[in-house]
Amino acid sequence: MTETSPSSVRSVPDHPTVLAAMRMASRAPSLHNSQPWRWVFDGLRLHLYRDDDRLLASADPLGRQLVISCGAMLHHVRTAFAAQGWHTDTTRLPDTTRSEYLAVIEFRRWPEPPTGVLARARAIDQRRTDRLPLSAPTGLPQLLHTARMLVTPHDLELDLLDDTANAKLGAASDQTTAMRRYDMEYQAELHWWAGHSGDPEGVPRESLVSDAEFARVRVGRAFPAAPHSTRREPLQDHARLLVLSSPRESVTTWLHTGEALSAVLLECTITGLASCPMTHITEIPSARKIIANMLPHPGIPQVIVRVGTAPDDEPDPPPTPRRPLSDILTMRHE
Fold first, then answer.
1. Can you give the pLDDT at residue 6?
2. Is 291 exposed, middle or buried (0-12, 13-18, 19+ CB in 10 A)?
3. Percentage of the chain exceeding pLDDT 90
4. Residue partners of 196: CB distance under 8 A and separation at least 6
5. Shortest CA distance to 39 belongs to which of 127, 105, 131?
6. Parallel, antiparallel, or unpaired for β 157-160 and 240-246?
7. Cα separation of 308 and 275, whole Å?
């Protein structure tokens, strides 16, 4: 009988570790909380597939935001495994003949991941999307310094828009809302995904804002309004706007955008800042052009992130629901 040397045995996380990491990573943000991803663990590798049954055909006909969502989940997964002591070697678009196959991950031991990675892993369960008015962000220069270091490896730029941007993008947001108001397919899609409670997907009613609250923020997607409330009154929104932009448009770029977005949102959480990613303004070419003209360099705007400070005396909002792990992860033996 031939003895197998330890060096010839591939090091792979066991099933409880995979399940724990994937459960943590499932907190990743996605368009309308659609969670448009499928994962397969084959005993050695972890495979990511886009779930086109969850494509929002009216808001996102090209699947750009779907892939960005999958990229955010990919970064959450890599961060969660790092916290468990596993380095993830990722190949993006491993088979270009299969458009649904977005990435494959292989593993190796990582006993001492950087402290920043561990902090971002701890932030996964704490992060929330905050659509309410925010005070001006504190510690913004340090956040920008760290976030740009996280974004640069993805061949993206992260820019802080000046104080005049909120009014301009508010107008662009209003324009986008007006163009969508009588688009019955868009409205039906929006109402399908938002405003319900008790479902494992979509934006629940308690995560929406009222008309009065939305009027003080203005820059945001016009979801179905929540019942009348005036939370954080009389606070006017003083959030700052960050823009993730790319030099080109491709599926790989969108996947990297989601990864970078995840890193930025988790870094905001670490520094005690509230955040709200927004993609609705980049759905309309005219509004996208307005954003591009605000950038200090040529680039294609992909995502805007509102960043600010939430009141200290508020309880944390409840987490938005997530699909059961068995719906998004298939465990196979090689």
1. 40
2. buried
3. 81
4. 202, 204, 205
5. 105
6. antiparallel
7. 7
